[in-house]
Design brief:
The chain is α/β, with parallel strands linked by helices. The protein contains twelve helices and eleven strands. The chain has one domain: NAD(P)-binding Rossmann-like Domain (Rossmann fold, 3-Layer(aba) Sandwich). The two termini are 17 Å apart.
Length: 314
């Protein structure tokens, strides 16, 4: 979702784009971008990707809220990042913009402001957080080497052109299809993908070497999000709200069902903790000031996302 929206906005703004895809997706077919297939763990492919480029945006990552082995996450999120960086440096790229995550930073706890001063979460028990934090810390240590490195830490991203779809895209799709049996009593900070990628594009000129910027939007509970979707669609969308204790009791059954059906579980113990503990005080002041980051209303994001899902996935 980040990649396709980034390519679209870059092309619309007059840039020439070369995009790397991993599994031969055809979602770029209608866009006037040069597309190559490959793997960020392949150094030769990375050399081809970065040749004669001025800017490299690195958005590839392995996201996991389950039991993905640590080595698989480390290879993609850490070694893959290093591969892209080294290829960009060797090719004389001027600016390297890395899409990290709010999860790469240690949660300050309680209602304390979640800012760029929070240290990297390199000791997190959640392996996705840990690997994203290690990659970010390594990149920040490359400051001053002749290639500007800028890092973005977005919160939960949602929006149109979510072809896979993402976890939140799948959630929205199930809600508007009346196929979600219930939701969890919790929430998160949500930000529009189009605002995230515009901040990344602005970082070409406005970002500072070695700096990282939190890109956040608005905190909403899952229940509040569904109520907004209900208002936008004119339909009664009100799944049962499960208390967390009840959701936890269902974890073993969901895991077993996922194995039997070869599908992803509706939620995991980690996703429960994420919506339980998502900070309501994520601060994007630095990005607003330095990158001209301006998040749009969440109602506009949800409206555009629902329209896109109905036109493309239903």
């Amino acid at each position: 979702m980040v990649g396709i929206n980034l390519v679209k906005q870059l092309l619309e703004q007059g840039h020439t784009v070369r995009a790397l895809i991993h599994h031969g997706d055809n979602i770029f077919d209608k866009l006037k971008a040069e597309v190559i297939s490959g793997d960020i763990l392949n150094t030769e492919t990375m050399d081809v990707l970065c040749k004669d480029m001025d800017v490299v945006f690195h958005s590839a990552a392995r996201i996991s809220i389950g039991n993905t082995p640590y080595q698989e996450l480390y290879q993609t999120n850490v070694e893959g990042t290093k591969n892209v960086f080294h290829a960009a440096k060797k090719s004389g790229v001027k600016t390297f913009i890395h899409f990290s995550s709010i999860h790469a930073l240690r949660h300050p706890g309680n209602e304390a402001p979640f800012t760029e001063d929070c240290p990297p979460a390199v000791d997190s028990p959640f392996l996705y957080e840990k690997t994203k934090a290690i990659a970010q810390q390594w990149l920040q240590n490359q400051k001053g080497n002749g290639m500007k490195v800028v890092i973005l830490n977005p919160t939960a991203i949602l929006g149109p052109c979510d072809f896979k779809p993402s976890l939140i895209g799948a959630f929205i799709q199930k809600v508007i299809n009346h196929k979600l049996p219930g939701i969890i009593n919790g929430g998160y900070d949500w930000v529009d993908v189009r605002d995230v990628v515009q901040a990344a594009i602005n970082a070409i000129d406005k970002g500072k070497d070695g700096e990282h910027y939190i890109i956040s939007g608005k905190w909403l509970s899952l229940e509040e999000m569904v109520l907004i979707m209900s208002s936008l669609t004119g339909e009664k969308l009100k799944p049962f709200v499960f208390p967390v204790w009840l959701a936890k009791t269902g974890l073993p059954f969901l895991k077993l069902w996922a194995v039997i059906t070869n599908s992803s579980p509706l939620y995991t113990s980690q996703s429960l903790k994420i919506v339980q503990n998502g900070s309501k005080n994520v601060v994007s002041k630095k990005a607003r000031k330095n990158l001209d980051f301006t998040p749009r209303p969440i109602e506009e994001t949800l409206k555009d996302t629902i329209i896109w899902i109905k036109e493309n996935l239903l």
